[in-house]
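[step 3/7] inverse_fold.run input=structure_tokens len=237
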């Protein structure tokens, strides 16, 4: 296997270190970083070979149960990259950064987001959970600060008082969510990755990310479900 045989250069190491310190890196930034690392290390740089460059790093990370994963933003479909620890598949990977009570609030927030119809939970609903935590009750002011921290650390995204899972969270916790929320978690019928914010077919129940919906129906005169061929009744923004 050519990828397995490829040497991990200083350029690869530098790229990996930046990705790990970022938590998550947007696709255009990753491409710039790829070029910068190759030019700094004076190794061959090919503009369209980012995926190959990452595959080489991943082949060396495999024995460490780590992997650079690519995911798409549910808002606009842009690519993002994050380093995932495959050995820790649960929320426990956050345990070194947060207290037990903070993690409990995160789990409960995740519950609300995943079981919701639109992939969002209101700050009111989340803050109402703060005094029902098993670990110990949390004051609403304290809970607001904790939520702010989750947003700053890119585990949650917030828009007009509504919270959803950040792209970083979806990339890192996809397997955890799919196995722990089997009844409600679904994959996008187009890109086959986890769909938190999605439109759902009223006839057969498949889901699609909004960017995937837009891309799929672009240029089509009739909007029909890719699975059951029934009319797609959701409005496409």
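[step 3/7] decode complete -> sequence:
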């Amino acid at each position: 296997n050519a990828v397995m045989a490829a040497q991990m250069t200083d350029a690869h190491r530098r790229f990996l270190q930046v990705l790990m310190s970022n938590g998550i890196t947007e696709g255009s930034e990753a491409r710039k970083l790829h070029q910068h690392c190759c030019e700094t290390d004076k190794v061959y740089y090919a503009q369209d070979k980012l995926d190959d460059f990452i595959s080489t790093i991943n082949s060396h990370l495999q024995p460490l149960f780590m992997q650079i994963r690519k995911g798409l933003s549910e808002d606009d479909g842009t690519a993002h990259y994050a380093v995932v620890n495959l050995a820790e598949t649960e929320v426990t990977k956050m345990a070194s950064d947060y207290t037990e009570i903070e993690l409990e609030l995160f789990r409960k927030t995740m519950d609300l987001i995943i079981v919701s119809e639109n992939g969002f939970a209101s700050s009111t609903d989340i803050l109402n959970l703060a005094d029902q935590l098993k670990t110990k009750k949390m004051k609403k002011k304290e809970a607001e600060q904790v939520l702010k921290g989750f947003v700053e650390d890119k585990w949650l995204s917030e828009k007009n008082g509504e919270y959803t899972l950040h792209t970083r969270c979806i990339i890192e916790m996809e397997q955890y969510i799919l196995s722990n929320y089997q009844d409600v978690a679904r994959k996008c019928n187009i890109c086959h990755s986890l769909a938190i914010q999605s439109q759902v077919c009223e006839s057969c129940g498949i889901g699609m990310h909004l960017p995937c919906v837009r891309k799929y129906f672009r240029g089509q005169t009739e909007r029909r479900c890719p699975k059951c061929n029934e009319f797609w009744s959701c409005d496409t923004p």
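[step 4/7] annotate
The beta strands are 25-26, 66-72, 79-85, 121-122, 156-159, 162-165, 186-187, 194-195, 198-200, 207-209.
The mean pLDDT is 90.
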